[in-house]
Automatic annotation (TrEMBL):
<dbReference type="GO" id="GO:0006412">
    <property type="term" value="P:translation"/>
</dbReference>
<feature type="binding site">
    <location>
        <begin position="31"/>
        <end position="38"/>
    </location>
    <ligand>
        <name>GTP</name>
    </ligand>
</feature>
<dbReference type="Pfam" id="PF00679">
    <property type="entry name" value="EFG_C"/>
</dbReference>
<comment type="similarity">
    <text>Belongs to the GTP-binding elongation factor family. LepA subfamily.</text>
</comment>
<dbReference type="InterPro" id="IPR035647">
    <property type="entry name" value="EFG_III/V"/>
</dbReference>
<dbReference type="Pfam" id="PF06421">
    <property type="entry name" value="LepA_C"/>
</dbReference>
<keyword id="KW-0378">Hydrolase</keyword>
<feature type="domain" description="Tr-type G">
    <location>
        <begin position="22"/>
        <end position="203"/>
    </location>
</feature>
<feature type="binding site">
    <location>
        <begin position="150"/>
        <end position="153"/>
    </location>
    <ligand>
        <name>GTP</name>
    </ligand>
</feature>
<keyword id="KW-0496">Mitochondrion</keyword>
<keyword id="KW-0472">Membrane</keyword>
<dbReference type="GO" id="GO:0005743">
    <property type="term" value="C:mitochondrial inner membrane"/>
</dbReference>
<dbReference type="InterPro" id="IPR006297">
    <property type="entry name" value="EF-4"/>
</dbReference>
<keyword id="KW-0648">Protein biosynthesis</keyword>
<dbReference type="InterPro" id="IPR009000">
    <property type="entry name" value="Transl_B-barrel_sf"/>
</dbReference>
<comment type="similarity">
    <text>Belongs to the TRAFAC class translation factor GTPase superfamily. Classic translation factor GTPase family. LepA subfamily.</text>
</comment>
<dbReference type="GO" id="GO:0005525">
    <property type="term" value="F:GTP binding"/>
</dbReference>
Length: 621
């Protein structure tokens, strides 16, 4: 039995390595969130025999616990499929990609290894903001696009309308558009046919010296860092010595495997293929995504890497007590290998101790990262409020003129300089695209205006849908813009954004004082027009969150030396006169006066203990 299994595995591998370049297709499925990418991937896997039909498993490529729980794809996954078309075996390398805006770096990275994409659109929802962004991403990379309308089985499906939208927005010819139901498995064959007939094969050279691009990597407890590679030239086998162009380190290849979607050992990877290599990389920092690897005996020119993702949202991460510092550090290190879009800097705070300042692509990315820290590594860190990176031009002083450090970048509100030192402040901006049914246009425009948005354009994409473009400050959308947009449009509006540089802005630092002492962890950078409202809200929230203590606590929001809001948290009052029975009134007054004096002393030295959750709760809008 075991021998049979081994022979079968071997024959499969044999087939894979023998496939000529002309019969390889590397492609990705891109779409707006929930339009059915993972479901289509499941069907493709079933159709090509990689998994059994009706195996009861769904979203096979969503492996992480957080993906299964949230029903979203976070990490792009790859799978190699073998498909017999008109008598020939084809190798189809499919890369499943996430749909949420926060994970667009995964989409970008996956596209590098592809020659074409399936652009999937929901037959009921039609083109959404992320569809637009993904289309232009693929179009900009000169990839062949196969437009597919999914969910045609839905009662309200209107594929004709969606076809018109595709034609109007992207100049896609109606006859090119496929119509399928991934859920029911209808039309899947037409997708496979389009992949083979419309997509080009990879432009690679099997005779040239080996060159491959690392486009993903993750950490395995037993084998160290594993790298997913796209072989551009030549071939690679177990036992070969490879060198990294980035670190110049040399490794011996220990394992070569294909993902089917389970890992299947192989002896060799040829140009045009995608596969996994393990070469005893012990430290997570060694598998550098975007790096080119080659055989150590033959120096080659590095392949063009992709732009590293730029973190947009920063937050402090601290262990809940300092004894967990080392375990949290190792968890962060391992997780950042798997999720290379996260940037890590060391940070410290008087209240929370030693920690890190991490950069994320967006708020969902931050939430998913902290959830993965908990689920996969059992870490329970404290996260501070998210912030963006501000650019600040300092007033010229003798010192900064000498050092040339007049321009600084600040992503930690605690480090925002005093207003007297600032000549001009700049905040990061984005161009936001919103697609909404026109009945929600009013509330959507009000939301954008409330978030300091300036309209760029508005156009109808069909009879009842409008596409809006706004210039928006990044800090206004990172926390709850997406959720609010969904709420006011009953879930119908969609949103996507792209970076649009910096813009001069009137920013102030809002500091929270507890009994006159600034709590830097609660500081916030806000636009001057919002300082009063945000200050008021924070003070009220803190009043409710901070537990009453033996002394009165004054909570103040202060900006540029001016108190904008204040609330008092009343102390517990001990009845010092309880033991008095009757007697002289002066005795009673004396006891109360003694108590008041004691409290005054205490207030001055009071070290107010804030609950851990305060830092997270208070800054949620
Ligand atoms: N009726 C119907 N439902 C479908 C079809 N395809 C997918 N769905 C459903 O649509 C929902 C989203 O599908 P997914 O495959 O998770 O979508 P996705 O695009 O991978 O989502 P993300 O990974 O979050 O980007 C699931 O509830 C699917 O069952 C279809 O053809 N018809």
């Amino acid at each position: 039995m075991r021998l049979q299994l081994l022979q079968r595995t071997y024959s499969q591998i044999h087939d894979f390595t023998q496939i000529p370049i002309e019969r390889i297709r590397n492609f990705s499925i891109i779409a707006h969130v929930d339009h059915g990418k993972s479901t289509l991937a499941d069907r493709l896997l079933e159709f090509t025999g990689a998994i059994k039909e009706n195996s009861g498993q769904s979203q096979i490529l969503d492996k992480l616990q957080v993906e299964k729980e949230r029903g979203i794809t976070v990490k792009a996954q790859s799978v190699s499929l073998l498909y017999n078309f008109k008598g020939d075996d084809y190798l189809l390398n499919l890369i499943d990609t996430p749909g949420h805006v926060d994970f667009s770096s995964e989409v970008c990275r996956s596209l590098f290894a592809c020659q074409g994409v399936i652009l999937l659109v929901d037959a009921n929802d039609g083109v959404q903001a992320q569809t637009v962004a993904n289309f232009f991403l693929a179009f900009g990379k000169d990839l062949t696009i196969v437009p597919v309308i999914n969910k045609i089985d839905l009662k309200n499906a209107d594929p004709d309308r969606v076809t018109k939208q595709l034609q109007f927005l992207f100049d896609i010819e109606p006859q090119e558009v496929l119509r399928i139901s991934a859920k029911l498995g209808k039309g899947i064959e037409s997708v496979l046919e389009a992949i083979i007939e419309r997509l080009p094969c990879p432009k690679v050279d099997r005779e040239a010296p080996f060159r491959a691009l690392i486009f993903d990597s993750w950490y395995d407890k037993y084998r160290g860092a594993l790298s997913l590679i796209y072989v551009q030239d030549g071939d690679i086998s177990v036992g070969d010595e490879i060198q990294s162009c980035h670190t110049k380190k040399v490794y011996e290849i220990k394992t070569v495997s294909l993902l089917r979607p389970q890992e299947v050992a192989a002896n060799k990877l040829n140009a045009g293929q995608i596969g996994l290599i393990g070469c005893n990389m012990r430290s997570s920092k060694e598998a550098f995504i975007g790096d080119t690897i080659h055989k150590s005996s033959c120096i080659v020119e590095a392949l063009q890497g992709f732009e590293p993702p730029r973190p947009m949202v920063f937050a402090g991460v601290y262990p809940s007590d300092q004894s967990q510092h080392i375990s949290l550090r190792s968890a962060i290190e391992k997780l950042t290998l798997n999720d290379s879009a996260v940037s890590v800097d060391v940070d410290s705070s008087p209240a929370l101790g030693q920690g890190w300042r991490l950069g994320f692509l967006g708020l969902l990315h931050l939430e998913v990262f902290s959830q993965r820290l908990q689920q996969e590594y059992g870490a329970e860190p404290i996260l501070t409020a998210p912030s963006v990176t501000y650019k600040i031009k300092l007033k010229p002083t003798k010192q900064n003129l000498k050092t040339g450090e007049q321009l600084i970048y600040v992503n930690n509100p605690a480090l925002f300089p005093d207003h007297l030192l600032i000549e001009e402040a700049f905040e990061p901006m984005v161009i936001g695209t919103i697609i909404t049914p026109d009945e929600y246009l009013g509330p959507v425009i009000s939301l954008c205006m409330e978030r300091r948005g300036i309209q760029r354009s508005a156009k109808n994409i069909d009879n009842d849908r409008v596409m809006l473009q706004y210039d928006l400050p990044l800090c206004e959308i990172i926390v709850d813009f997406h959720d609010t947009l969904k709420t006011i449009s009953s879930g119908y509006a969609s949103f996507d954004y792209e970076d649009n540089g910096y813009q001069s802005s009137n920013l102030v630092k809002l500091v929270i004082l507890l009994n006159g002492v600034a709590v830097e962890e609660l500081s916030n950078i806000v636009h001057i027009t919002k300082a009063q409202t945000v200050g008021r809200k924070m003070v009220l929230k803190l009043r409710d969150i901070i537990p009453r203590q033996m002394v009165q606590i004054a909570v103040q929001a202060v900006s540029n030396g001016k108190v904008l809001a204040r609330e008092n948290i009343k102390p517990y009052r001990k009845d010092v006169t309880a033991k008095l029975y009757g007697g002289d009134v002066t005795r009673r007054m004396k006891l109360l006066a003694q108590q008041a004096a004691g409290k005054k002393k205490m207030r001055m030295v009071a070290n107010i203990s804030l609950p851990k959750e305060t830092f997270i709760d208070v800054l949620k809008k």
